[in-house]
Design a protein that fits this description.
about 40% helix; about 15% strand; globular; three-stranded mixed beta sheet; Rossmann fold; alpha/beta; seven-stranded parallel beta sheet
Length: about 325
């Protein structure tokens, strides 16, 4: 199968490419323009490892300007993971890149594939489309994003929906819930916490730490999204991918302290606008349609991320 992965040098994208390449029947084309919160040297490390694989091809281009007709030739499945992430930086003057990379790029891709015989167009969405919720959230919950970032990702979902309805683009929407693990972006909480604690720096914590998240280890996330290509009955579906274990932010910090053997000096900052107090995925649809069963506990996942952080920063 010929598979295109956008955002292939990113956190989830690089792990997904490695997973897909384990199947000898797959050839993967990755595209990445090396922008976003993850420093380019980190992304280069991810892409260089992938580029050594004989069934992987990297296209280093901007999806707003690259010639899509040639890039999409003979492609069977598209994983659209590329985009501008992050809630904090989506406010104010920094909003235009979110519009370009999360809305305009998605529309350009959908327009390019609307008359092509692709098997699946898998769009990576986020729990941020739900906004503030109580208890487990199902895919048919009312959608009310709290941030400009969430609005751009929901707009991408709506674009997928109309291209599916009008042009029969075989869309599948996957909503991620707080994915963490090795290669996580430096602006994300666990990456920051681990680096700060190991280096003996104050831990910057937004809010009082009682906000809870459905933490999804990256290998579990990738197991779920990689399964999409081989499952039937998914076209037009929206599917949550949550993790094995929920926790509050302060509980996660405490666990990192135990795993590193170092005490955190916490510096509390005002709560971030646009962040919900909790996320919690109902994954029953993923269990039924994808045979999805997250395996990695928060302790196991944090151990792996701590090992990664120590390695990349030589700590």
């Amino acid at each position: 199968m010929n598979i295109l992965v956008t955002g292939a040098a990113g956190f989830i994208g690089s792990h997904l490419c490695e997973k897909l390449l384990k199947d000898e029947n797959n050839k993967v084309v990755g595209v990445d323009t090396f922008i976003g919160p993850t420093p380019e040297p980190f992304k280069r490390i991810h892409s260089e490892v992938l580029s050594k694989h004989p069934r992987f091809t990297l296209i280093e281009e901007d999806l707003m300007t690259v010639g899509l007709e040639q890039m999409l030739e003979d492609i069977d499945v598209i994983y659209h993971l590329a985009g501008m992430p992050g809630v904090r930086s989506s406010w104010g003057k920094d909003f235009p890149p979110y519009v370009t990379n999360n809305i305009l790029v998605t529309q350009r891709l959908l327009e390019a594939v609307k008359n092509k015989p692709i098997k699946k167009f898998i769009y990576a969405s986020t729990s941020s489309v739900y906004g503030q919720t109580e208890g487990k959230v199902t895919e048919d919950a009312y959608l009310a994003p709290l941030s400009p970032y969430g609005i751009t990702k929901l707009t991408g979902e709506h674009l997928c929906h109309v291209y599916h309805k009008s042009w029969h683009v075989p869309v599948v929407i996957i909503r991620f819930f707080t994915v963490y693990g090795p290669r996580q972006r430096p602006d994300m909480a666990f990456h920051r916490f681990i680096k700060q604690i190991v280096k003996g720096e104050p831990v910057t914590l937004y809010g009082d730490g009682t906000q809870s998240r459905d933490f999804t280890f990256v290998s579990d996330c990738v197991e779920g999204i990689s399964a999409v290509i081989n499952k039937d009955g998914l076209i037009g579906q929206r599917i949550n991918l949550g993790g094995k274990e929920r926790a509050t932010v302060i509980e996660a910090v405490s666990l990192i302290e135990k795993l590193t053997g170092k005490k955190a000096v916490i510096r509390y900052l005002p709560r971030i606008s646009g962040e919900p107090t909790q996320t919690w995925a109902d994954i029953s649809k993923a269990q039924m349609l994808l045979d999805y069963h997250p395996k990695v506990s928060l302790k196991e996942g944090l151990e792996k991320e701590i090992e990664y952080i120590r390695y990349v920063y030589h700590l």
